[in-house]
Amino acid sequence: MKELLNRMTKDPKIAYFTMEIGLNKEIPTYSGGLGVLAGDTIKSAADLRLPMVSVTLISKKGYFRQAIDERGRQREEPEEWSPARFMELLPVKVAVEIEGRDVYVQAWLFEVKSLTGGSVPVFFLDTDLNENRPDDREITDHLYGGDKAYRLKQEIVLGIGGVRMLRQIGFEIRKYHMNEGHASLLALELLKGYKRDIEEVWDERLVWDTGKVKDLCVFTTHTPAEAGHDKFPYEMVSKVLGEPVPIDVIKALAGSDHMNMTLLALNLSEYVNGVAKKHKEVSQNMFPGYEINSITNGVHSYTWTCDSFRRLYDKYLPGWANEPELFVRVGRIPDSELWDAHMEAKKALLELVKAETGIEMSPDILTIGFARRATAYKRADLLFSDIERLEKIARGKIQVVYAGKAHPKDDAGKWMIEKIFVIKERLRDSIEIAYLENYNMEIAHRLVSGVDVWLNTPMRPLEASGTSGMKATHNGVPNFSVLDGWWIEGHIEGFTGWSIGPEPLENSVNEGVMDSRDAMDLYNKLEEIIMPIYYNDRLTWVRIMQNAIGKNAYYFNSHRMMRRYVTEAYIR
Ligand SMILES: *Cc1c(COP(=O)(O)O)cnc(C)c1O
């Protein structure tokens, strides 16, 4: 163990801090897009042999396992798992102060190893130690569970505990990358180390050298909605966090009325970015006065490509997994083999649908996929805005597969699932609709590769990036989506896929108008463009599949994303 740690700490590193991470289907320490992105980031870093380490929480009871009854009501069950099966507990302990007492933190080590010889250690922090009080032992149990104070405690463990853990192990860190504001307290912990000599300064607030911290920090914001930013009342902050630096200093950096974690990160990071070009603009408007850059997200190509397409790429584009730029040569793949690979993935999905729901779908029918967090702004029900119209269009020629969890406290999201169940029953004689339980990385993998079209209908401009559509393109599945997030950059109408609704510049129409305009466009394109090509013009359909790979997967992968983080954020 000692030897392993010595080897790991030999060179300076970039430390990537994230509340959640989705590395594989067996380690349920993620809830959705943010965590899966973190996993893909670390996998690409390992492939590219970047000098990185990552810090996250062990989340021993996961996010939750979703069960859905016959009426569409979601039940949440703990997703208990056993870290010892996958990782090793390090004999290193640090303490953080929470509510005035010491809470001890230990770390599990998981190494992400690449075939290229690269490797990135991921440290999963755990407070379930004998030394701790029973309630403190539960701090790292539930991802996004509990109340606000519970969240603040988790963020103390992640940010402050994480920095101390890396120091204790012996790492020299060149850059700290905060994946979302959950990790912002790391910057306060760093600030404590940069106190100027009081004799040299005339203003109390200048004692703390924020410039030194900024040089060390990179911040990626992911949330285009004001409500999505973590904020804690100062009463709670004084009680739970105390004053790692004087409260006036915290207020100057994180806002005077609440401790706003996004603001804290913005004020203590030299480089800040949004996760798509549009998201950068939205964030810039939310936080005027800060320079916000953009690095559009990507997905880990190998992870998100299904078996039949991996074989195809190995045969015609050898080396693709570590050099996704090779997708530019997708034209080398014969049309028939591309189609066969797709049908193989489609049949595998339909088998899963049958096994999970009993619903039998036909591989010859146009299959639409929609899977994402069940929450109001994602508008999973937009497809059903005008049911008569949809039935007229479909006439036995469309089937739809859904999946998605609602956050336990998101009643509107839960209602969305129930609504789809009601419609599913109502349409049972005209359109087959299946809702798969417990959306996770495994189901995502089957879905994005096995459907014919990937549908996305968020309310503009709330989709910061979106990544499931990028996964679809790696399997030759074209997107049919609202122009928001990454699709604004990936969309070429009728070439890489299709848009729904107006150009991205138009943001300010009211919601009702937006819904009906988008729905109308969705129906029109489905009826007049997508179904006719799918059923009558296989050659054009396969060209569009090729373009999804050659133009979208070519660019929207995490290898490209990480090269940009290196040149634009890490080395400056
Ligand atoms: C990729 C992925 C997501 C994110 O998808 P979006 O398109 O960004 O909503 C969420 N959950 C799981 C399990 C995923 O694999």
Mean pLDDT: 96
Discrete helix count: 20
Total number of strands? 19
- CA-based gyration radius: 24 Å
Structural class of the helices, strands and pairings? Answer: alpha/beta
| Strands ordered across the widest β-sheet | 5-6-7-2-1-8-9-12-13
**Low confidence ranges:** none
| Beta-strand percent range | 15-25%
Q: How far apart are the termini? A: 34 Å
Bound molecules: pyridoxal-5'-phosphate
SSE order and pairing:
Layout: H1 2-8, E1 13-18, H2 33-47, E2 52-57, E3 65-68, E4 74-77, E5 88-98, E6 101-113, E7 119-126, H3 134-137, H4 148-169, E8 173-179, H5 185-191, H6 210-216, E9 217-220, E10 231-233, H7 234-241, H8 247-254, E11 258-260, H9 261-267, E12 271-274, H10 277-286, E13 293-294, H11 307-316, H12 335-357, E14 366-371, H13 387-394, E15 398-403, H14 411-426, E16 432-436, H15 441-450, E17 453-456, H16 468-473, E18 479-482, H17 487-490, E19 497-500, H18 511-536, H19 538-553, H20 558-570
Parallel strand pairs: 1-2, 1-8, 2-7, 8-9, 9-12, 12-13, 14-15, 14-17, 15-16, 17-18, 18-19
Antiparallel strand pairs: 3-4, 5-6, 6-7, 10-11
The structure holds pyridoxal-5'-phosphate.
Pyridoxal-5'-phosphate binds next to helix 2, helix 15 and helix 16.
